[in-house]
Amino acid sequence: MGLPTLILGSALDILSAGRPPRAKFVNYPLGFESGRFRDRRNQFDVVAEALKGFDEMTAPGIDPLSYEWIQGWNMVRERERGKLDQRSPRTTVPQYQTEEDRLMAEGEGSQGEKR
After folding, report:
1. What number of other Cβ atoms are within 10 A of residue 92's Cβ?
2. Cβ 65 vs Cβ 46: under 8 Å
3. Going by C-beta distance under 8 Å and a sequence separation of 6 or more, which residues neighbour residue 51?
């Protein structure tokens, strides 16, 4: 029968690029996929709703959850204004730490030959 898989994510572009077999999207800032900061009730509700995907999703896809957290997005904007956020901008282009990592991920051996 196999092991069922479900992803709970907050970056729709990344979820789409990864093409998971089953995913729930919550429109919260990155890092808050499982709910609002210090809000146990919301965290429980988000995760419980996402887990319903095991029973409800009959075909591969990404289903949005109906949660909204405007204050979370405001918090992120404030953080960015203060230049506290040093993360690289998001992109759909794969990024690697080393050239060796890139070669291995793209299926090339250490000699640059396809495996």
Report:
1. 8
2. yes
3. 6
The dihedral built from the CA positions of residue 74, 78, 84 and 87, taken in this order, carries a sign that is positive
Largest CA distance in the chain: 53
Token code pair at residue 31: 């890092």
Q: Is the pLDDT of residue 86 over 70?
A: no
Which pTM was predicted? 0.65
Q: Give bridge partners of residue 25 from the DSSP assignment.
A: 9, 64
Kindly report, residue by residue over 47-68, the tens digit of the pLDDT: 999 999 999 999 999 999 999 8
Q: What are phi and psi of 11, to 5 degrees?
A: -120, 95
Scan for tokens 């050239």, then name that residue. 99
By residue count, the chain amounts to 115
Classify 82 as helix, strand or coil: coil
